Amino acid sequence: MRIDFDKISHSFGKNRVLHQISLEIPSGSILGLLGENGAGKSTLMNLLGGLLRVQEGRILLDGAPVVLRSPANSIAHGIAFIHQELNPINDLCVYENIFLGNELHNRLGILRRDAMRKEAETLLASLGMTFSADTMMRELDAGHKQIVEIARALHNNARVLIMDEPTTSLTEQEVSCLFQVVRTLSEKGVTIIFISHKLNEVKELCHDYAVLRNGTLVEQGKMADKEVADLSEAIVGHELSHWQKAKDTVQSQEILRAEGLGRLPDFQDIHFTVHKGEILGFTGLLGDGRSEIFRCVFGDIPRHDGKLFLNGRPFHARKTADAIRNGIAYVPSNRKENAIVPDLSILTNGTLATLRKHRRFGLLQRKSQLEEFLQKAGEFHTKYADVEDLITSLSGGNQQKVVLTRWLNTHPQLLILDNPTQGVDIGARQEIYDIIQDIAAAGVAVVVLSGDGQEITRLCQRAVVLYHGRLAGELSGDNLNEQNIMALATGAIKTTS
Amino acid sequence: MKKALHWFCKQWSEKPLFSTTLTLAAMIILQTCALGTGYANFGEWGNAFVVNWINVLRNNATVGIIALGMTYVIVSGGIDLAVGSTLTMLGAFFLLLIDDKGILASCHLSGWTAFAVAFALVTLGGAILGEINGIFIAHGGIPAFIVTLGTMKIFRSVTQFFMQKRSLAVPDELLNFSSLQFGKFMLMPILYWLLAAVLLHLLYRKTIFGNHVVAIGSNGKAAKLAGIRVQAVTRRIYVLMGILVGFASIVQVCRIGSMDYANAGSGYEMDAIAAVIVGGTRMSGGRGSIVGTMLGILIIGVMNNLLNLWGVPPFLREAFKGVIVIVAVLFQKKEATA
Q1: For chains A and B, what is the number of CB pairs under 8 angstroms?
Q2: Are A469 and A303 in contact (CB under 8 A)?
């Protein structure tokens, strides 16, 4: 099916996120839709998927203008949207998920389970899958859930398939299987819109590309004419400056050592050491268990096997307060859910971990609270209008700085950062990296957990790569690059260097 | 031995039906023992056993029917606190229709024809009251807890206001709907309950509607993205609840003959919710079963009976109900964090 976006504009309140986008996608082509976070890719796709109503402009399918009111409406037009955060119904089984919203039934509304099961099995087999259609969705890993989503799209006779970062949690093998499926679909005339930050993949798979920047379509054309480096330049809008590799501030004093750390089923047999002033990276694919390891260290998960040593002495945090008392600070991932208190002010959020210090006769002393906050806010160049504004009034990067302020004021000896630049735009990202490096230079041992290979290579002196909860390898120096991380994280090779 | 214990623990924490069935079995054994041994022969004991069981089942039939609907509501991620008040309002409506000097009598309808008309109107009324809840929950974006807390107060208060000077009764002939005797047993309420259970079990397991209820309770966003009309399904769930309450109301009124508008059905919402939870349905939605709810009702019913047989004072019995609900959710919590 041919898709035409005709002068699409869109605003959220005063914030204009799409400007006059006109884009034609021919039938059966695979379009790589590129852009930074916040460039407007999701908004554009949400319009096509019926999650947002078109405000200005038109969408035409095979030349005919359509009004897409709801996801159901888009599905009826043959548009399938596979979202980045997978959305399976974990309490239903595989075939029920495939047929969700489009069940086979007789005239009385009674489900024809056998027919659905059989059709689902055929569909899965055609995708090269061997698991049973009766498997409960919760038992599948992320890669297989992705395949089920695709099966669902195929089953709905999708003529347009939108895939939002489908490969982030897949192994190399699963990716090549997925690409095969996508190519077959494209040959059958299905139009595919492929959103990904992995430019090598985009280059390999897509016929066409379109680049969005700040809500404007800045470039489009044939993929064959473009090199990967040109693409990344088009996305950022200027040549990527070469990153200053982190200064090596590591000291010899050991802060945390793990021996045979394990907690089934999440991870097992983990060894590592972090030194004073070091930035140690932990990386891997989704489900590698890195967050769980450090939730154990921090006492959020109270029980584990194996031993931990803090400053050479055995250490076991039974609750998070134990860890904090011992100078461990933990900045969790998903800032929105785990780190900020959205109904409290910037000031209170920034001093939440140290409120005890600012008490006198049980009353909070605003002056000392403010003093503490302002000092770090100055160091970090946090931008805000008033400390009494809600934390949610800040951008992602500034929110993260407030969260960092909160933890640094506890004067930790070990700082654990889980996904520190999640939802932080590219400009603020470098600032956060600088802050992290300054923290390490001041003698704090820093552990960075991230699934972003680039982030790890830029930030860390040494990185531990995990594969399904086990150590896949450790990289440092020149060996610490994205290719090696990917090879270890997908289980392709097993080495230590 | 250790392996068996491990297997047992795994089954207990992972399969709600496993733990509920065992709990119920244990209760039934205790209950059977509590019947005592002071009987002349086996026949007499058997008689006492059957009479006791029929009492247990019949006493729980009305709440049982409501709990079936409550299973749908809770699996979808909602709650309905208004069922007790809805029962009273619909009971009053039924009496207004069916009384010897009631509305239908003035339309020259009487006997079972009048009953059939009243039955249809009362279930329709139930559907409307359910739709009111459903519209506010699905379209108004108000949490089900708040909406039904409000309608709980409204329905009862309005009923009491309009019924304060009236004393109505079901004509004797129509009492047979619930009170028809088989031998010396009053079985009808039990049969209605079982019939409703079978139908609702099929609706839950075999139809699209049942699947969609699970889907919106398990992951509402995903359900919406899959093209399910979440709001329409939500409304239908509360309509179904209302219809069942209407049915339960008629069964109850025909058993007693009249209604105490201040107290009838009060506390039913908590009893129904307790039964659903004890039956292994997840409070946050997405998982549950009609079979589990039936077992849950029986666990609470048999426990009540057991406490009665043991001579535990009535005022203390509610405390046991409270304990068993908390213990049931304790097991659930384990499943959620694991």
Answers
A1: 69
A2: no
